[in-house]
Amino acid sequence: MKIKSFHPPQRVLMGPGPSDVSPRVLAAMARPTIGHLDPKFVELMDEMKSLLKYAFQTQNELTMPVSAPGSAGMETCFVNLVEPGDKVVVCQNGVFGGRMQENVERCGGIAVMVQDDWGRAVDPQKLEDALKANPDAKVVAFVHAETSTGALSDAQALVEVAHRHGCLTIVDAITSLGGSPVMVDAWDIDAIYSGTQKCLSCTPGLSPVSFSPRAQEKIRNRKSKVQSWFMDLNLVMGYWGGATKRAYHHTAPINALYGLHEALVMLQEEELENAWARHQRNHLALRAGLEAMGLDFVVPENERLPQLNAISVPQGVDEAAVRALLLSDYQLEIGAGLGAMAGKVWRIGLMGHASNPRNVRLCLGALDDVLGRMQAPITRGVAVDAANLHLAA
């Protein structure tokens, strides 16, 4: 069989990621490839660091994109800050806290797990109790925005508890960066990682990270080598450092970085506060429509992530069949549940370029149609009007 060029269908991506990519970003990625040590590319790298500092709200010099997806950003934080025998308190309230545990153990560390119900924020008092019981802990790790459930935790409070007990902090901001407030310096976060495919409106494949001076000191003074050569920041910073002369470390994904640069320029143009407000406004419109229809949110309102909405599947409804019809009839992708929530929830994303009123109306209208055809226990014909009332307010 002769294989031909691949032409993907045009979808509307309203799942947990990737989200829709801005045409400006796609156009930027099609620009001519130059060398990864070209003086012009070095200029772009410096601009990228400045733009990421703005997105993270930090002055950390060690702020850059890892040349791999968000999972590699997570691993970069753990392999650099966790040494064999280190005790790490990991807060888990969903799937991705479990991945943090995996990272600790693969680094030879000892993971002390603090468990919260899935769909709830991390409880700072539980962290406080765990640190009192483990005074030799060196690091606290938690997920700011748990993508598997749509729960948003109070990062500032958790970091304050960790620092009071002498621990460094590792924070997962994969789904929050660009969509909800993330204040690295004001909250005193030590290490943080994110992904480009969520609220930054970019393609998957890069992971912005930032490390505080305190975290950098820990990395410089390790007793053992970082277990990953590729992710060893002592080496990587020879390439991403601030000096004019860059040392070769790896061939950066040049065109992908063009895309991230453009996405961050767009975020700067919109301004962070406006981006946060846009995600919240569209979430509230979606909420109005879903609740008018009779669908329920998993996460309590005061712990809810605006850009990732976990919705309970109505009794008797085949959730996979609903997603399949949305995709075939409306070219609309929403997400399934993960782990303990598999088969029980839909995850509806309103992230980045996809967070707009048109998508809110499309999603509500499509759900109204598909669930109506399935004779689901919903109120029909009211969702879009309820959202429009909110959008017009």
UniProtKB/TrEMBL annotation:
A Gene Ontology BP annotation from the UniProt entry: glycine biosynthetic process, by transamination of glyoxylate
Chain positions recorded as substrate binding sites: 347
Keyword list, A-Z: Aminotransferase, Pyridoxal phosphate, Transferase
Superkingdom in the source lineage: Bacteria
Domain Aminotransferase class V span(s) in chain numbering: 33-337
PTM annotation (N6-(pyridoxal phosphate)lysine): residues: 198
Entry GO MF terms: alanine-glyoxylate transaminase activity; L-serine-pyruvate transaminase activity
Keyword Isomerase: no
Cofactor entry: pyridoxal 5'-phosphate
Family: Belongs to the class-V pyridoxal-phosphate-dependent aminotransferase family.
UniProt-recorded name of the protein: (S)-ureidoglycine--glyoxylate transaminase
Organism: Sideroxyarcus emersonii
